[in-house]
Amino acid sequence: AARRRFPQAADYVASDVYAVGLAAASCDVIVLSEVVEHLEDVVAGLSEAARLLKPGGRLIVTVPYRETILQHLCIHCNQPTPANAHLHSFDETSLGHALLEAGLRPTVSCVMGNKALELMRFPQWTRWWPQWLWRLTDGLCNRLTGKAAFLLMVSERA
């Protein structure tokens, strides 16, 4: 879908996050959006991304922010299973440490998307708003409630 929408923007690859199969230092930017919380070995996945980045290349990661991971009883194996297959919960400190351990240097961190506003379907009601107004409202609600939904971190290859 990205290639159809932005055919001249970049090359896109979908693969196993632990073994991408590209040459080392072959990427300027890698985006892991809503991926890292699903990884069994977070540092191994981030290390593979670090291997692929050119010196000074950037990794952009988004994850659910301070998520409470719910468990359900699996009907197949009768074992507790994490809802949404989310294995990890992150905040700035835990994701920052994982990035550092993988050989990356975090440079930017921000929280976004307020959980209360999402429950009230705020994003759907305000999709026609200008971006600056939406970000202002979202940021104010996050400051007041402390209930951001997502964490975005940008890091560079060390």
Structure description:
The structure is a single chain. This protein has 158 residues and is α+β, with helices and mostly antiparallel strands. 31% of the residues lie in helices and 29% in strands. It has six helices and six strands; from the N terminus they run H-E-H-E-E-E-H-E-H-H-H-E. The chain has helices at residues 2-5, 42-52, 92-101, 115-119, 122-125, 131-145; strands at 27-33, 53-64, 71-73, 80-82, 104-114, 148-157. A four-stranded mixed sheet has the order 1-2-6-5. Strands 3-4 form a two-stranded antiparallel sheet. Strand 3 and strand 4 form a beta hairpin. The longest helix is centred in the C-terminal third of the chain and has 15 residues, at 131-145. The chain is globular. It starts with a helix and ends with a strand.
Brief digest:
With 158 residues, this protein is an alpha+beta fold. 31% of the residues lie in helices and 29% in strands.
The class by helix and strand makeup works out as: alpha+beta
Radius of gyration over all CA atoms, rounded: 17 Å
What is the mean predicted local confidence, pLDDT? Answer: 92
First-to-last CA distance: 32 Å
